[in-house]
Specification:
Helix content of chain A: over 70%
Largest sheet of chain A: none
Number of strands of chain B: 2
Radius of gyration of chain A: 24 Å
Shape of chain A: flat
Number of domains of chain B: 1
Structural class of chain B: mainly alpha
Strand order of the largest sheet of chain B: 1-2
Helix content of chain B: over 70%
Oligomer: heterodimer
Shape of chain B: globular
Distance between the termini of chain A: 69 Å
Number of domains of chain A: 2
Radius of gyration of chain B: 22 Å
Distance between the termini of chain B: 70 Å
Largest interface: A-B, 62 and 56 residues
Structural class of chain A: mainly alpha
Number of helices of chain A: 6
Amino acid sequence: MAARRRPPPEAVADVAVTVLLLALFAGAYLAAGQWSFRAALFPHLVTAAGVVLTALHLVQAVVRLRRPAPAPVPDDSNPDDVEYVFRTAGPRRWAVALGWVAAFFVLLYLTGLYVTAPVFSLLYLRYAGKRTWIFSGIYAIVIAVVLYVAFELALGVPTPSGLFGN
Amino acid sequence: MLTDALNGLMQVVQPAPLALMLLGVAIGFVVGILPGLGGAVTLALMLPFTYDMQPVEAFAFLLGMWVVTSTTGDITSVLFGVPGEATSAATVLDGHPMTKRGEGGRALGAVLLSSALGALFGAVVLALAIPIIRPVVLAFGPPEFFALTVLGLTFVVALSGRRLLKGFVMACLGLLVALVGLDPQEGVPRYTFDLLYLWDGIGIVPLVVGLFGGAEVLQIMLSRRSIARTDAADTSLSGVGQGVRDVFRHWPLVIRSSAIGTGVGIVPGLGGTVAQFMAYGAAQQSSKTPEMFGKGSIEGVIAAGAVNNAKDSGSLIPTIGFGIPGGAGSAVLLSAFLIVGLNPGEEMLTTSLDVTFSMIWVTVLANAVAVAAAFLLLRPLTRLTFVSGPLLVPFLLLLLTLGAYTSSNSFADVLVMIGAAAVGVLCIRYDWPRVPFLLAVVLGSLAERYLFLSHSLFGWTWLTRPIVMMIGVAMVLAVLAPTIRQLRNRRMDRRQRTSEETV
């Protein structure tokens, strides 16, 4: 008897996401019950439709999950496609990329734009981009100057000032 | 009318209006490229500078700025996958994949020329529509507006192809997000979790920027490669010529998309996001290669480019004719009319008709100047896409941040952008369509308002109004057509396989 292949992660994720959405729509439907009729009418229509459609999709996703997984086919995806990159990047690369993104926004929240831009640029180019300190430093200074001239002096547009900036 | 048209042109080509128009074009060029600094917001910021100007000078400056933002917003959509304007989101879907293939020049050439032609089409329609706009706009009431919003949503859900059910689920999710905020009927806070920020609802600009731009930046961080993969030496210039030829080859598509843009732009309140996705959806349905859409189809780029500028001219029609703004930008322009002492309606269609025509000439000339400037800058712009990925990451993260923050100067918008980016990444990773979600967020509050008005004014008889029923038929066809096409293709494949087996 052929061994049953494990379902692909996409099929499992489909079920998980659908269950989450079903819970979201159901919760939203119940929350709308606390409002007046006029305020709750459209939310009830939308969330009820959401519950029905998500339930239908859950059935479809579960059926797909229980179906025997097809034999693996050669992957002919384009390696430049964003779907391919997301699918094939390993957990370590994801962790590193998300770590840098988190560092950027935490720094932005704490120190504001005019500190974050040069500091993040310097560190990212040096450690993730493997550039020299001089190259990274020049890039950081240029980006800070361009931002300041464009947004502070020329356009006069407010930018995030950060917790410590306030 | 011809005399007024020529007088209008003569007034525009004077030194002062011409100089102000060029200044407006330069500002609009930069604003369009920077996500978050929308055309309407910039119009509002520049409005005080027009207090002392003559009417033609004021509109040369303001319109020169406004009409250019749609064109240049498409540039960052194509090159970086980050929409420069909320109305440039559809351009990302096919323009950016083309850039990744090293065809950024071709995509830019196509989008810029189709934008210019769309602007020309819209301007011609605006000029010809002047005698006939009144009965057309007055025929549309809340039921027709509601039907149009649902039609726009249906078109976009139908784009999901074989993921139709997922498309509908994402549309419901988008409608749910649109419900966050104060209820428009009774002022009840809905899904706000006691947060004052959420009383105004979820901002569209941070949502769009995060949903589309976030995934692109993350892709570059994961792959550490440049945006464009192929290293063709002179891709930029030869690609531009190819893009221009593509536009002329697909001239019926340009006209159809421009017509959709102008038509939707005429309807007050619907906005450019609806127009672009309706045109995009129509282009896919009529294409011989619909499966290429979303993967770098030149037809998708052309459709998205043409519709953007055409809708700006369309939105001027009810603004000039009745003082009913077609969108946010034309609402600000309406204030400008009043500041310079012009009254929309009869005055602008009779005694001040030359000023009206000068506005039409400005939309044509400003677009021509912006497109020419963009073509001159194409080589350095497309070269940016071959720059190594890590060099672009800080720049793109800053672009996303500023795009989100500047919409209302609140850090909470940056958090919305991050959330939207997470949704966008998950959608791509697990094959859920993003576009129905976005459009439902845009249309949700409009749909609710029109539904309530329709029911209050007409009970349920609004469902039997002729235009509503025609739009209903179009909705059914939009959903059924791709399904029927798929079934027909499957039957043909089966027949072909059977005949091969019997041979």
